């Protein structure tokens, strides 16, 4: 494990915590809200066994990274990702993002190009543009996000409980694909995250990535759960085939948002097949 300093807030530095394991071609994995880099455990194991070097890191505000009250926007998140790549001197990287992490993958390619990127993976995708506007009628009504922020302000632990229930479709998969203990572990990670970050990240979800997607020039894999309640399939993944040129699209039948945990066999098979070519 290690850390890279990405800035300061008043008297303290802002560090991004990362873990770097294995050898071979590097795969950088960017987690979703409200978890941390260890949420990739079901993918890291198979990637290491397949001979990849696996780098995970905690987004600012989450896990073991610093918890500042600045930088909760995709310009800063992407610069944090670049700082990790620079620090580790990584090239020919496969970038894998889940949920919020798909935003970093998308904005990185748009901002810094694909010179250092071999392939991209978007899992439970946030792009193209989640907010419903006049020129984006396929988005989600802004009142939904206002209600999420109000719930976090009112009772953050209770808001995280409801969020994670929908994150895993607990009413469907409890006791089969998501145990009470695994759910509790996610809850523990979520409530230990920065309260400020938990609130501020909601606005970042409403970033318009449509111009960024036009700059994709690497093979891209999209994996999305058909029954995703956090980033609904019709509002997100179903729109991406017309926006990304070289796209492989895998739909996980009946899959919830965190398919990496609930459907690892299907996800890992698609991931390994894509990265191997």
Automatic annotation (TrEMBL):
It holds the Pfam family Abhydrolase_1. The keyword Glycoprotein does not apply. Belongs to the AB hydrolase superfamily. Bacterial non-heme haloperoxidase / perhydrolase family. The keyword Cell membrane does not apply. InterPro entries: AB_hydrolase, AB_hydrolase_1, AB_hydrolase_fold, Epox_hydrolase-like. It comes from the Bacteria. This is Arylesterase. Gene3D superfamilies: alpha/beta hydrolase (3.40.50.1820). Keywords: Oxidoreductase, Peroxidase. The lineage of its organism: Bacteria, Bacillati, Actinomycetota, Actinomycetes, Streptosporangiales. One of its GO terms (molecular function) is peroxidase activity. It comes from Acrocarpospora pleiomorpha. Transmembrane segments: none annotated. Residues 26-264 form the AB hydrolase-1 domain.
């Amino acid at each position: 494990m290690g850390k890279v300093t990405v800035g300061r807030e008043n008297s303290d530095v802002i560090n991004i915590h990362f873990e770097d394991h294995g050898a071979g071609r590097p795969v950088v994995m960017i987690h979703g809200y409200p978890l941390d880099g260890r949420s990739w455990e079901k993918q890291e194991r198979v990637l290491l066994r397949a001979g990849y070097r696996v780098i995970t890191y905690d987004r600012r505000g989450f896990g073991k990274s610093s918890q500042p009250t600045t930088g909760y926007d995709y310009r800063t998140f992407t610069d944090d990702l670049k700082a990790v790549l620079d620090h580790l001197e990584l090239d020919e990287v496969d970038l894998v993002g889940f949920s919020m992490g798909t935003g970093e993958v998308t904005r990185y390619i748009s901002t810094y190009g694909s010179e250092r990127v071999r392939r991209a993976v978007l899992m439970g995708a946030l792009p193209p543009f989640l907010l419903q506007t006049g020129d984006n009628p396929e988005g989600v009504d802004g009142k939904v996000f206002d209600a999420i922020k109000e719930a976090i302000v009112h009772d953050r632990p209770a808001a995280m409980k409801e969020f994670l229930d929908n994150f895993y479709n607990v009413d469907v998969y409890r006791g089969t694909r998501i145990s009470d203990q695994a759910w509790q572990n996610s809850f523990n990670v979520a409530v230990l995250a920065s309260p400020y970050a938990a609130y501020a990240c909601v606005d970042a979800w409403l970033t318009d990535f449509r111009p960024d997607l036009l700059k994709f020039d690497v093979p891209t894999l999209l994996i999305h759960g058909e029954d995703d309640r956090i980033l609904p399939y019709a509002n997100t993944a179903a729109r991406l085939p017309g926006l990304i040129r070289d796209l492989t699209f895998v739909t996980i039948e009946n899959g919830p948002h965190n398919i990496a945990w609930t459907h690892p066999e299907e996800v890992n098979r698609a991931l390994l097949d894509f990265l191997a070519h």
